[in-house]
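User: Hi! I have a protein structure encoded as tokens and I'd like to know what sequence might fold into it. I'm fairly new to this, so please keep things simple.
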């Protein structure tokens, strides 16, 4: 058993984040996991359209995914800038869009820094835009897509894990891991795997099992916001806070503050959908 834990704890050192390189070009598992996430989500949505009572054309689905991908990338990047490092980027605005560090010597860094919560805002805007453009009901459309999202998100966290980023706090539990990107070389919680399971697989199983028996349209997107917010809020206690931020308020991390806002947003969506959505009681 000791041999297993030793292998497990050293696993990150045995994973190469680069699939292959050609000159200066690198294909990394992190980017590949994003691609897998979008493809899997698309397949699940198409499955529901074919097998369940949804009447959406291929054009509508593909148009949404095009805007959703842009929403994730642009929203995720701008969310990181605003939520996590605004002061720095106000002083280095070109680094928001350029893959170079311009502080001191010019250095290629890639586009580093994405915010999940910013990506959520981007996807919500994609839902609103596509619903208006194609004249479809926003609540019905979100009920179709949202149950498929968490399983795709699992692969995003696997990408973080392989990249050796967003690891957890120092621990002494046997399933902790040593990450080559950790300059302190301490045993840490594999918080990326915690998130991949609970924010991904666990939440997917709940939403997928409820997809045909919701009390009102708009229930599933609200449940997703609340469920993700609650799960991520507690996992943040095991995830290492951003080194340049630490805890920001009441001993909570920036991620926990954003998750609290996400929970409130989910409850607000439930209230709006229940009182003003397509299943709202008729006004007399």
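Assistant: Happy to help. Inverse folding works backwards from shape to sequence: for each of the 284 positions I chose a residue that suits the local structure. Here it is:
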């Amino acid at each position: 058993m000791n041999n297993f834990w030793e292998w497990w704890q050293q696993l990150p050192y045995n994973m190469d984040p680069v699939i292959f390189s050609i000159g200066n070009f690198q294909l990394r598992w992190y980017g590949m996991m994003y691609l897998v996430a979008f493809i899997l989500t698309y397949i699940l949505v198409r499955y529901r359209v074919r097998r369940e009572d949804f009447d959406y054309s291929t054009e509508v689905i593909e148009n949404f995914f095009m805007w959703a991908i842009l929403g994730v990338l642009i929203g995720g990047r701008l969310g990181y800038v605003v939520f996590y490092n605004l002061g720095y980027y106000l002083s280095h605005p070109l680094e928001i869009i350029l893959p170079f560090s311009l502080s001191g010597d010019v250095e290629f860094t890639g586009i580093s820094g994405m915010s999940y919560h910013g990506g959520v805002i981007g996807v919500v805007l994609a839902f609103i835009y596509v619903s208006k453009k194609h004249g479809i009901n926003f609540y019905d459309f979100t009920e179709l897509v949202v149950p498929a999202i968490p399983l795709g998100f699992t692969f995003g966290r696997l990408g973080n894990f392989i990249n050796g980023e967003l690891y957890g706090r120092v621990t002494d539990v046997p399933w902790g891991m040593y990450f080559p990107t950790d300059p302190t070389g301490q045993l840490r919680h594999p918080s990326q795997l915690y998130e991949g399971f609970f924010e991904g697989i666990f939440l997917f199983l709940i939403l997928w099992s409820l997809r045909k028996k919701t009390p009102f349209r708009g229930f599933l997107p609200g449940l997703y916001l609340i469920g993700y917010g609650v799960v991520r809020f507690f996992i943040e206690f095991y995830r290492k806070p951003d080194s340049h931020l630490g805890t920001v308020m009441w001993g909570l991390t920036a991620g926990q503050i954003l998750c609290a806002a996400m929970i409130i947003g989910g409850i607000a969506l439930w209230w709006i959908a229940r009182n003003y959505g397509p299943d709202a009681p008729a006004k007399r």
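A useful reference point when you look it over: The chain has a mean pLDDT of 89. Feel free to ask if any position seems puzzling.
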